[in-house]
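Objective 1b: paired records.
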Amino acid sequence: MSIGSRRSDPTPGFCLSTQLRNNGVVKFPGEAAERVARSLLDQGPGTPTQLAQRLTLTSAAIRKSLSALTADGLVSAADRAPYGPAPARRRGRPSQVFSLTARGHAALNQEYDDLAIEALRFVAAEQGRAAVARFARSRADKLMIDIQPCGQAPVDALEQLAKTLTAAGYAASIERTSDGGQSVQLCQHHCPVVDAAAEFPELCEAETHALSDALGLHVTRLATLAKGDGVCTTVIPLVQRKALA
């Protein structure tokens, strides 16, 4: 996965700006509609034409799926994507860009969270929040185990980071910022345990520290799904080495 070329300002919620909460079981209106929703999760917002190209479906099938997803409150349409550069001006009415809503995120997120919350509550009750923090750090370290500290331009490590997080269910991407190449922004569009992280912020805190240690760089977490932001965003400098203890 190469570093994306779209502009991404390091501001909270810049990648996406909707609230995310898991409120009950949500079913998709058909297999094609679920494929469309997963494409919006994994590859980001898109126009009907872009979605048809991604999924090799007809325009009619895409529009039917988008209509059903919109009616169910799983996706929403806008004149531009909620993150990235504004589209170039052109004649005629611009094509609408579709994105997942909070309900759409929740529908793709609901299979793991309840069990995670139950398990963490048990650990907290039996051994205290310090035990939760230790578990969170162990989990985060395992997630980052294949990422090696790098030099001044950690491109290879960032590519591996995005692949690792995506494989773990975080739909991660690396986006360029507008600071002249001094940093990039890690966007995690999905979290398989978002409600657990909302109740136990130790999960997010441990992930941030583990990421910093794995890259050997100071990183800054700007927004999280667990706090109601539409995406987890972390600014990663490309030139600043983390001071050795």
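Objective 1b, second protein:
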Amino acid sequence: MQIRTVTGDYIRDLLASGAREDGRDMLDYRRITIKKGAVPNAEGSADVNFGNTRVLVGVKLGVGEPMPDKPNEGNLITSAELLPLASESFEAGPPSPEAIELGRVIDRGIRSSGMIDTKALFIEEGKVWDLFIDVYILNYDGNLFDAGTLAASTALSTARMPKLEGEEVIREGNLGKLKVNNIVTSCTFAKIAENIVLDPDGNEEAFMDARVTMANDEKVIRAMQKGLSGSFAPKELENLLDITFDKSKELRKHIESAKE
């Protein structure tokens, strides 16, 4: 759990000198580790660390009913829970606005990229697969968006597809993999005074003026989310788009090299 001991002036002065608290360059990620298969009973799962930020994602499939406007498609349901053990600012109870936003940002990148073909989750008339992506924040130290998206993509890419035999869902035995069409990652940038940093930690997030998250697959930007009242200049955004494509290659390598 992060306990903040610095001031905004300290962070701003440090960045103005071209330095960050942990010694990173402005556009460097913290140390990233991924453990696949962290939840044995889930169809797919991943435990991801970005520095001291830790996110656990589990993927589960169950039989449900299609949405009225999409009768031939399964349902993709993403939710996020900010556990009180992760930060002194997180409270138990109904989902907070921050938890809702986190779930929606992760969902939007996955959904808009077509990473999961919801039509392939159709079973028969009135019956489809519900695909649940459950995001749990185990420790907060900034940048939940990128850690959450990386954990969700890892969990989906390793998930097994259960079988339906009659009314029974078979989750063991000779199961195929859940089909995924691509890998989605996101890059989150924070603007603090006139400086822009990638992968802001908890202290940097506390004093940022603006935030933007860009999600992409191997080809195009699929979703963007702007936060806070500050702004990015058009030229700044163009530059960040280029950086996102470059850094996403690095993030995908982490998924490829991760072990169970």
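The mean pLDDT is 96. Residues 234-257 form the longest helix (24 residues).
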